[in-house]
């Protein structure tokens, strides 16, 4: 076994990246198994269900199915927009910029990408000390809860999922006026 140096540590990989890799692998093997003739004695067993890689294929299929059922596997998730999302999540909060960041760590960014939270409860579970974070703390214009809902709505633009409690909050604002 090779010992990794501190600079050789693998990068964090999101569920979205794993899912796209598994899709590519499964699709690249599909034509091989369909091209072979089942009655031919020379058919490559590695491309059939009885081949030596049947356990690998089953595991990859099961993981792919799980990831497709997870929040990041939805049809409305905008994969091409994810680099912009990551950049904004990790950018330090700046009150002078129109598009302020949230200053999340790499691990917190990965958690947000994998779970795509839709409620304040999920958000509190994913981001440590949320109330005291510069991008989420209350200021003179917005309360901490309002900033958290803005963050959830921002995430929902990329995930295509509805924010839980957003409708009730909007109705409550309408009743106050």
How would you characterize this protein structure?
The protein has 177 residues and is mostly helical. 51% of the residues lie in helices and 0% in strands. The chain contains seven helices and no strands. Helix 1 packs across helix 2. The longest helix is centred in the N-terminal third of the chain and has 21 residues. The radius of gyration is 22 Å and the shape is elongated. It starts with 14 loop residues before the first helix and ends with a helix.
Descriptors for this entry?
single chain; elongated; 177 residues; 0% strand; mainly alpha
Helix and strand topology:
Blueprint lengths: L14 H21 L18 H16 L12 H9 L15 H10 L4 H7 L17 H16 L6 H11 L1
Helix pairs in contact: 1-2
Brief rundown of the structure:
The chain is mostly helical and 177 residues long.
Mean pLDDT: 79
SSE string, helix = H, strand = E? HHHHHHH
Tell me the overall shape: elongated
Number of strands: 0
Largest sheet: none
Structural class: mainly alpha
């Amino acid at each position: 076994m090779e010992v990794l140096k501190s600079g050789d540590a693998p990068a964090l990989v999101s569920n979205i990246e794993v899912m796209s890799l598994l899709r590519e692998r499964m699709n690249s093997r599909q034509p091989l198994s369909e091209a072979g003739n089942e009655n031919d004695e020379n058919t490559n067993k590695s491309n059939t269900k009885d081949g030596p890689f049947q356990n690998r294929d089953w595991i990859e299929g099961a993981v792919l199915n799980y990831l497709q059922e997870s929040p990041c596997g939805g049809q409305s998730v905008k994969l091409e927009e994810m680099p912009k999302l990551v950049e904004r999540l990790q950018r330090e909060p700046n009150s002078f910029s129109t598009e302020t960041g949230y200053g999340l760590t790499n691990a917190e960014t990965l958690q947000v990408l994998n779970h795509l939270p839709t409620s304040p409860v999920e958000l509190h579970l994913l981001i440590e000390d949320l109330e005291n974070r510069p991008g989420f703390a209350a200021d003179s214009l917005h309360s901490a809860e309002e900033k958290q809902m803005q963050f959830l709505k921002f995430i929902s633009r990329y995930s295509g999922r509805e924010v839980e409690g957003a409708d009730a909050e909007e109705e409550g604002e309408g009743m106050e006026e």
